[in-house]
Amino acid sequence: MFESMEAAPKDKILALMAQYREDPRTDKIDLGVGVYKDEEGNTAVMRAIRAAEKRLHDEQETKTYVGLQGDKVFCEEMGQLVLGDAVPADRFRVCQAPGGSGALSILAMMLHRAHPHATLWLSDPSWPNHIPLLTTAGLKTQSYPYYDAATGSLLFEEMVDTLSAAEKGDILLLHGCCHNPTGADMNLDQWRAIADLCVERQIVPFVDFAYLGFGGGLAEDTAGLRLIAGRVPEMVIAVSCSKNFAVYRERVGAAIVIARNAAEADTAFSHLLSVTRSVYSMPPDHGAAAVRMILTDPALRADWQHELEEMRLRMETLRGDFADALRRASNSDRFDFIADQKGMFSRLGLSPEQVDRLREEHGIYAIGDSRINIAGLPGDRLDDVARAIVAVVD
After folding, report:
1. Is 255 a catalytic residue?
2. Does the structure show a pLDDT above 80 at 12?
3. Angle, helices 47-59/286-296, rounded to nearest 10 degrees
4. Are residues 172 and 291 in the same domain?
5. % of residues, the chain, pLDDT over 90
6. Which CATH number characterizes residue 341's domain?
7. Distance of CA 142 to the CA centre of its chain
């Protein structure tokens, strides 16, 4: 059977991680892998998670299944965290999922059941794993302009013009905040314009919400999503807890469905649970239980929010300092956009050949499209990194 198969192409990011591990240079820098890192380069367990896990160890009495929906209190808390009072509670349903990727996958499968001929519109560029996740579910995709690599800014007018050709029932994938891979986000006026477009064209927004709290803060990062949720009749949201709770390996996420009324929400939710049963049956419990404990305990929640804000502010400071270092090294404002963007990622605007030189000549690892992880920048070596970048550009 297997002799007729060819090896699947390697994931470029995972391949880069392996290449970094094998590099013997002691001064190498990893700006490729998409996980938050602290000042020492570690992806640490957050204080509130550690405390919740200790409590979970002491209090948990069974390892039996939690059911297709998952932890119901976790689901309630995630719905509140993301939507607040933007949508009446009877119009939305929440299902626990194995990470943000799991939420994307099961929502895409449910949407394909609802409208098998719909086109799903993706930003150009978008997270590379969006296409395999969403097309595996059966959806066909098309791209819309989003980012000008030369200026580090949004192509918003081009985006709206392209999406004006979307048909009734098409699906629009949006990044809730901290756009991956560019770091360039829409402002509230632009979110409002997209909401108008979705209502006018009867487009269903599909928001990937992977970096809540990493952009402008918890309230600021939900503002655009809540604005559009309050306007459109139908919408789905894939939420990840990987970054903001640093529970990457625990695979904690949530899939949210918003419908026109309670009856239609129940129907859509029944199909979402049917999909989960056919794909993975029951979700993992441990990480979601820890997150639920944090969100329902005022002291743990306050500590989590405080540490999350520390992480956000560190990345914000790194952005400003790195933009300053690049300005000094290049004697230009070419890279000033980095300071204005949000979250973990930015694109430097380098060619694949320049990214290769950065790795080979300077031991600095970035993704081939020149996406870098801001949190991976060494705060005490920003000038070195900036000089290396300018050296491969000139």
Report:
1. no
2. no
3. 110
4. yes
5. 92
6. 3.90.1150.10
7. 20
Active-site choice (195, 243, 246, 254):
243
CATH code, domain with 83: 3.40.640.10
The model scores a pTM over 0.85 = yes
At residue 230, φ and ψ (nearest 5 deg) are: -75, -10
Q: Domain boundary at 250, 272, 296, which?
A: 296
Distance CA 82, CA 226 (A): 8
Task: Give the C-alpha separation, 166 to 168, whole Å.
Answer: 7
Which residue out of 48, 51, 210, 259 is catalytically annotated? 210
Domain interval for residue 86: 65-296
What's phi and psi for 16, nearest 5 deg? Answer: -65, -40
Question: In terms of domains, do 168 and 261 share one?
Answer: yes
pLDDT digits (tens, 9 = 90+) for 77-113: 999 999 999 999 999 999 999 999 999 999 999 999 9
Task: Examine the domain organization and report whether 71 and 8 are in the same domain.
Answer: no
How far, in Å, are 181, 237, 254, 327, 347 from residue 208 at the CA level? 13, 6, 11, 33, 19
pLDDT confidence of residue 15: 83
Contact residues for 71 (Cβ-Cβ < 8 A; gap 6+): 96, 285, 288, 289, 292
Phi then psi dihedrals of residue 347, to 5 deg: -105, 130
- 243 carries an active-site annotation: yes
Q: Tokens 């970035």 sit at which residue? A: 366
Q: What are phi and psi of 279, to 5 degrees?
A: -100, -55
What's the pLDDT tens digit per position in 280-297?
999 999 999 999 999 999
Catalytic residue among 127, 238, 290, 304: 127
- The domain total for the chain is 2
For 1-29, give one letter per residue: b (16+ CB within 10 A) or e: eeeeeeeeeeeeeeebeeebeeeeeeeeb
239: confidence class by pLDDT, cuts 50, 70, 90: very high
Q: Does the residue 307 lie in any domain?
A: no
Catalytic option among 30, 170, 185, 208: 208
185-203: pLDDT as tens digits: 999 999 999 999 999 999 9
Nearest 10 degrees: Cα torsion 69, 72, 75, 77:
180
